[in-house]
Model the fold of this input.
Amino acid sequence: MKSISFLFLCFNLSILAAIVGGLPTCPANLGAECSDAALDDWKGEFFPDVQKIKYEGPSSKNPLSYKWYNANEEILGKKMKDWLRFSIAFWHTFRGTGADPFGAPTKYWPWEDGTNSLAMAKRRMRANFEFIKKLGVDRWCFHDRDIAPDGKTLEEANANLDEVVALAKELQGTKIRPLWGTAQLFMHPRYMHGAATSSEMGVYAYAAAQVKKAMEVTHYLGGENYVFWGGREGYQSLLNTDMKRELDHLARFFQAAVDWKKKIGFNGTLLIEPKPQEPTKHQYDWDAATSTSFLQKYGLTGEFKLNIECNHATLSGHSCFHELETARINGLLGNIDANTGDPQVGWDTDQFMTDIGEATLVMLSVVRNGGLAPGGFNFDAKLRRESTDVEDLFISHISGMDTMARGLRNAAKLIEDGSLDELVRKRYQSFDSEIGALIEAGKADFETLEKKAMEWGEPTVASGKQELAEMIFQSSI
Done:
């Protein structure tokens, strides 16, 4: 979950302007006066060459169609759309520019005018809902500062957000809602030492006010969850850091968020999104296990779940499957950011997941969890820097949705076949004995086990059958 800084965007747009000979002052397809009113009142299509995406089956060669995602098809007793609960990430889809640490933006969508005005924010919001409807998705996600410009004061920022959110409420109608909302607490210079873990009390207070407002608008829009991504909640050096104090402050911040959620009647799930590093050297929500330990220590496990991002799992040295299973067995699996990274690139690349094997493992966890509702799958993924056509926005999401749908179909095959589950059951079958049951119930002391070890003699150790497990898994793909 990342966002694009407007200052960074403007800086890079100016570079791009110099390269290409100057940016247009109005969108290329506006066809009207170049004014805030013209932008605000725009009622045309943003994607006139794209019809609503339909399911055409695996044999289709149409890139603007679903091959595997058939929303109303039942798999394991649920419709696909209810297993997957797809959501569009506003920040990557409508604020992504293709810029990276080494280069200026490569994307300049025809509806953009190069500003971060309120009028432009409303225009992006209209594009967002046209995109969502043409994909046939009914959820979206946002950061407060992605959808509305910041202000010189907190009051001005809140007013800007209110104005854009009012339009979003109108456009989403009754069938679309946010999967989750969040506050961007990592981009502004005030958050350079963190937000809830900042050494400055004034920053802590400002972050609290920003979360309060973001939670209120998420609730107003009918959001089903609220996410915390601690982009700078960590440290660069322990030499100047009071780690205990910062962790205590973070816990107090989360408890205050719980209290406010209850006060305003927001029934959504609060989610923490683990990530090991980048931008900080060490983030306090390093991985699912670390986040679980934090929640347990501070008595917050009943109030929070985890939003697992597959690319973050890679950065923490784990597989996505590992992180999902760690969250699941602790009763904390709440939502998934469906993306992946590149093992040959050292940072968080946020690519759309297209690996069928990885998607199958992800869906095994989801099915074992009984689904994700009220969570779902958010596409925290962006177009590659080199992909610059408007239709690429659709193709990337179609590919990601088809991949997850194919993973669901494969997971269903594995579960219905039962061979993998049976292999695992047999591997642990010795614990199904009388003594095994006592061990698992915590009723077998060392004295009892010593007597049994002497009685049984040297134990036999069965094969783990790893290759057979891998063969069974591969046969499902």
In short: Residues 3-37 have pLDDT under 50 and may be disordered. The longest strand covers residues 177-182. Residues 198 and 204 are 6 Å apart (CA to CA).
